[in-house]
Amino acid sequence: MSTSPPPPSPSPTARRPSVGGELWRAVSGRVAGVVGRAHQTWRRSLQVRVVTITLVASSLLVGGFAFLIADKITTILLDSARSDVRQRVTTGANYAAKQVSFYGQAQEAQLQETIDGTVNYLAGGDPQQTSGVVVAITADDYPNDIQTRTSPSANVQSLISPELRAAIADGKVASQIRTGRLTGETTKYLIYGSPVPTRFGQIELYYLVPLGRQDVTAADARATVVATGVALVILLGLLAALVTRLVVNPVRVAARTAQRLSAGLLDQRMVVNGEDDLALLGASFNQMATNLQRQILRLEEMSRLQRRFTSDVSHELRTPLTTVRMAADLIFAERDEFDPAVARSAELLQAELDRFEELLTDLLEISRFDAGFAMLDSEPTDLVPVVHRVVDRLAGLAERVGVPIELDLPGTPVIAEVDPRRVERVLRNLVGNAVEHGEARPVLITLGIDETAVAITVRDHGVGLKVGEEKLVFNRFWRADPSRARQTGGTGLGLSISLEDARLHGGWLEAWGAPGQGAQFRLTLPARAGDRLTTSPLRLVPADAALPFGGPRDGGTLAIGPGTGGALAIGPTPAGDGQRTEVHS
Predict the structure, then answer these.
(1) Which of 534, 530, 536 is nearest to 569 (CA)?
(2) 69-99: per-residue pLDDT in tens?
(3) pTM (2 d.p.)
(4) Where is this chain compositionally biased, Pro residues type (predicted)?
(5) Residue 540: CB atoms within 10 Å
(6) pLDDT 10s digits, 42-52
(7) Domains and CATH numbers, the chain
């Protein structure tokens, strides 16, 4: 029985991550962090931008100016050296021509001595002179053996190029600049050559002048220009930083003061110094802040008085309303004994007293919200019975107007920490409005839940809402169609109170609508009191809403409506497994 060998274990190198890769990631991460911080500073600081732009612009300008100045100095030094060497070459060629003009081919020994003396004389008379100038006379084209003589002694053949030799052989005075080593360290030389005519032909005179002194002078000039340019750029940067600071600091103070004012610290003001434009800005800002403070305090006082007036009036009306209610109840109970006209008046009086009492109740509730005295009594509540109670209470109204109410509720309890009284009031307002505007078409109530939130949607198929009205419906006493006859005689405060109830829970109350497609309201509440909402279990735009451009809908997966602010609502229809649908008519 054979057994296969065990698979090879991975090598330590394969298991261990690459050190180079980790180092590269660390370096790239640090560079990215530095770049990010620099970019953030560039975006946030006006002073940094102004100083940086000033430094870059001045550096380019001063750098270009320094380059031109250094190049001009170098050119002047080189031209001066050329002029001096050219004069010396001309004088030396004339002198050498006179010295060798007396000799012919038969006097070669005396000619060599004369050339040696002429080179030493042209070099200054001292073969060991230390000025660095090398004088050389060559006769390479002479048929006999006349040796090249230099003073001081050096091998100049490597520095004299064939092009220069050819130019001088043609009878021209020519020059070139080459670098080499003659008497010591490697040096740049200016080489000038001139032909020297004789009775037996032509010899060449060369001056090799070192340019070390000119290079040092040019380098010193460049260093001076660069140092001056750097100092000028730094000075300009400091000046720009100072000027920008004088302008930016008051702006920053104004921004901080404005932030404090927006936070409610209305007594904050800027310190004003001087009489310049910035001082005028500070004085104008302070005057504006004073006027705003005065207006805000005035509006707060007016709002406080208005809230107090509403609360006082509502409370004061309770006593006479109670008396009138008792009298009206007595008259209403005896209406069968009255004339038909008086009996009808008693019924109208009873109905208007009901509406007046409801209006007083809503005004008191609104005044409590405005004063910040509204309290939330949260407790774990099953929302399914709450929905049923609301539907049962409005069943008579729905039957009277011919609007069936359909329920899409989970088959299991939906528990959330809410104030059941307030939630029931919100649903009563939403369902009542949907029945009022249902146009004898079904009203669908859907309940959904997820890990963090519960949501209830109320969908009607009436005339719907125009663009922008999905925000106006929550305004106090606002009506989409004031001429429309109401069945319940509402107060116009129901949706406003519902919105405040939703906010008191930390939830959302939103509306969607489209002309001819009806409307849908969605109440979303956190499953646990105090949690923060991020999403809703149900969609705001219903699945059966038509696209604005009239396109078909595929399974209710895409919805666009005027109430969404142009947003897309994408996802499956919320109703899923474990839910049941009921119809109340």
Answers:
(1) 536
(2) 888 888 898 888 888 888 888 888 888 888 8
(3) 0.44
(4) 1-11
(5) 22
(6) 877 777 888 88
(7) 34-263 (3.30.450.20), 269-373 (1.10.287.130), 375-545 (3.30.565.10)
